[in-house]
Structures are given as C-alpha cells and as structure tokens.
Design brief:
With 404 residues, the chain is of the alpha/beta class. The chain contains 14 helices and 16 strands. Bound molecules: nicotinamide-adenine-dinucleotide (NAD). Residues 6-12, 29-32, 35, 80-83, 94, 97-98, 117-118, 140, 142, 144, 249-250 line the site of nicotinamide-adenine-dinucleotide.
C-alpha cells in the first residue's frame, strides 16, 4: 500500500519503519524542515533502539517531505502529530491542522485517515467532518525505548471505526503482528488510550506511596513488597517500580488532559488526580533525603532522559530534579548515555562521580547497574532502585522505599 505518515516523531517513525519493512511505500510528512532534511539523508532525529538501522535498511521504501501534496494518492494516512497539554487541557490544533491539510490534498475518497495520536473522545468525529473521508481511530501504546519492538509486537490492537470496511483495512495492515484485535467505536478507542495511561500512572503512584511508608519502617524494602504483590495475577509485576516519579511525553500530559476533559463533562477523576499529586511530590522527597546528607555542595545526577534507552527528556523528572537542586543552591553536574540537558553541565560518567559530594540515580540505565564499587566514599541516593543496598556504605546510602 501507499501509506502516508503525518508527524515524524517517535510514533510516526516507529510506525513508518515497521510498515516499510512489510514492503509498504511510506510517504512521511512533517512541518519541521530540519527533521525532514535529516531524514532525507537517512538520519534519525531521535535515538530509539533499532530505528537508525531500520531507516537505512528500508530507505528505498520511504519518501520524506514537507509537502502534503505527495499524500494525494495514498491508500491510508496515519496522523501521528503531537497532542500536547497546554494550560491543563489537550491542544488539538496540530491534529486539526493536519486534518485540514489532508482534506485539501486527498484526491481519492477511499483514502482512509487513521488517527494514531492520543486524542480525547470526540476527536475522530471532528476529524471526519474536516477530511470527509473515512476516519479510523487506532491509538498507539508503544513505549519509548522499545518503540520498534512494541510496534511489531503490541499487546493488542484497538481499531475504532464508524464503518466496518475501513476498520477491516487497518486490521489487515496489522495482521502480521498476530496481536489480538479489539474493534470499537471511535469514542471507545479514544477512551481506551487514556484509561490505559491513567491506570499505569496510578499504579506507579500507588507503589510510590507504599514506598513512602516503607521508608519509615525498620527493615522494610518496597522492592520486596512490589515483587510479592506483583505475583498476584490480578495485580501483575509491571509498573510497580517505586522511584522518583513518572515523566515523559505521555503520562503527565495524558493524565492532565483526561482529568480536565472529564471535569468539563461534570465528572471528577479523583484517583487520577491523586496519582498526579503523588507524582508531583516525588522530587521534594529526594531533596529532603539529600538534605539529610548535605545541605550544599556538588551533586551528580545520573540520567537525564525520562526513561532508559531514549534520548527523550520531555517532562523528565531528572530535569525537574536538576532545576530544583539548583534552586536549592547545589551545584549540579549530570551524565546520561544518550540524552542532553541544558539545565546542567553534562560530563562523562567517571567525571560526574569524581566531582560529586552526592550522587543521585535519576534514570535506570543499565550502565548504572553495578556502580556500587565506583560510588564508594560518596553520598548516594538511588532514585530508581537499581543498586544493591547490601553493597552500599551504611550512613551514606538512601534509596526510594528502603527503610532504615
Ligand atoms: P513528537 O512530538 O515526537 O512528534 C510529532 C511530530 O509531529 C513532530 O515532528 C512535529 O513537527 C510534527 N507535526 C506537528 N504538527 C504537524 C502537522 N500539522 N503536520 C505535520 N507534522 C506535524 O510526538 P510523538 O511522541 O511521536 O507522539 C505523537 C502522538 O502519539 C501524540 O499524540 C502522543 O501522545 C502519542 N503517543 C506517543 C507515544 C510516545 O511514547 N511518544 C506513545 C503512544 C502515543
């Protein structure tokens, strides 16, 4: 098929390379000229495992452009543009702009417009009014750092459509993944995405609150508690890692968006609101742990990406931590294997530890596992629970959810 992809971020590129591997011809459109120029030279604008290699391998199936006109004769176009939350509400301007431009250029009335961006319920209905062609809602559940693996092996595929045939076409497109398919209405598909992200955010905030209590107890470690409760199939072991909080390009904006969307409908999402509140308090807990060690001096923050295996720092808790540390008067240096932050001086790993009076692990990169020996002599706070407490110096080590 000739497939258009509008918006060449993580989701657009992961979708693009995976479908290019299946032999489809991909026309990737973005309004960001620099991004398109780089992609034309086979340069991925982001770090995502396997992305650069797949881009090079299947480059013959790609056209990258800023010109919507090249989408005029496509079988299907994915909308994968950003949907930020601005002033607490979802901003759908990019989606509607893409829809309007598609409406202007699509020549065939059987080109299906597929919304992959995360959008509040009712959006597909509005996009249909703009483009006139059939619209399918096909929300994306990939995790950054595993974007390609997840696109190839999703847990499920959700297809929301008004009519059966367009949904069938999208279902066929993803058949190679062998994932279970849930056919829904537009609104259900849109709601599923928010319900999923909100639930995951709640799960992490839940274990973070349990961690707070564990910290007050003698001989109590939240990782042991999480492991045991996670063995209960009704709970599952995933998203039960206590830490300095969730960040990234999705959870913060999506939880806020659904809370305000619900409020406009006269409903309060009290549990999701509580999860956001708990999350916002995480950094202050780390700061008070640090103050228990040192009130001033050099702090090395290990990790600035919002999670491992990505260079994405959007809404990264590590960056917020750096800003707070600086406002509290600490001098901050940071190291990350892939990501950069303007907020702190970025140095090499050894240098970061050498300069530091205290080290805070803010992102759970594999590279930081097994650092116990190297960290000797420093005050250490394990914000992501990747160090072995039994190998750390007594009186110089604290960790989220680890009691005295
Ligand atoms: P991104 O911000 O990395 O990329 C979006 C791209 O869209 C940018 O390159 C931007 O220049 C482009 N764009 C904006 N307006 C445009 C327009 N009118 N025409 C063409 N291009 C335009 O976004 P992302 O992280 O890939 O996320 C895209 C969507 O998918 C969002 O709705 C997000 O919530 C959702 N999503 C993201 C993830 C994730 O892990 N990042 C996972 C699932 C779902």
């Amino acid at each position: 098929m000739r497939i258009g992809i509008v918006g060449l971020g993580v989701v657009g590129l992961a979708t693009g390379v995976v479908l290019a591997e299946q032999g489809h011809k991909i026309i990737g459109v973005d309004i960001d000229q620099n991004k398109v120029k780089g992609l034309e030279c086979k340069r991925s604008p982001i770090y995502e495992p396997g992305l650069q290699e797949m881009l090079e391998r299947y480059f013959h199936n790609f056209t990258f452009t800023t010109d919507y006109g090249l989408l005029s004769d496509t079988d299907l176009v994915f909308i994968t543009v950003s949907t930020p939350t601005i002033d607490g509400k979802i901003y759908l301007g990019y989606v509607f702009d893409a829809a309007k431009r598609l409406g202007d250029v699509l020549k065939r009335n059987d080109t299906i417009v597929v919304i992959k961006s995360t959008v509040v319920p009712g959006t597909a209905r509005k996009v249909k009014e703009i483009v006139k062609n059939d619209v399918v809602s096909n929300p994306e559940f990939l995790r950054e750092g595993r974007a390609i693996l997840d696109t190839k092996n999703p847990d499920r595929i959700v297809i929301g459509s008004e009519n059966k045939e367009p949904g069938d076409l999208v279902e066929n497109l993803w058949k190679f993944t062998n994932a279970p398919v849930i056919r829904t209405t537009w609104e259900e598909a849109e709601m599923i995405k928010y319900a999923a992200n909100s639930f995951l955010a709640v799960k992490i905030s839940f274990i973070n609150e349990i961690a707070n209590v564990c910290e007050k107890l003698k001989d109590c470690d939240v990782t042991v508690v999480a492991k045991a409760i996670g063995m209960d199939k009704r709970i599952s072991p995933y998203f039960l890692n206590a830490g300095i909080g969730w960040g990234g390009s999705c959870f913060p904006k999506d939880t806020q968006a659904i809370v305000s969307f619900a409020r406009d409908l006269g409903e309060e999402l009290k549990i999701v609101e509580a999860a956001i509140k708990v999350n916002n308090e995480r950094i202050n807990r780390v700061i008070s742990m640090l103050k228990g060690f040192i009130k001033e001096g050099n702090v090395c923050v290990l990790g600035v990406a919002f999670k491992p295996n990505t260079d994405d720092t959007r809404e990264s808790v590590a960056i917020k931590l750096i800003k707070t540390l600086k406002s509290e008067g600490y001098k901050v240096v940071a190291y990350d294997p892939k990501a950069k932050a303007d907020e702190a001086e970025m140095v090499g790993l050894d240098e970061c530890i050498r300069i530091a009076d205290a080290v805070i692990i803010a992102t759970e990169w594999d590279e930081f596992k097994g650092l116990e020996e190297k960290l000797r002599g420093k005050f250490v706070i394990d914000g992501r629970r990747i160090l072995d407490p039994s190998k750390m110096e007594k009186g110089k080590f604290k960790a989220i959810g680890l009691g005295e």
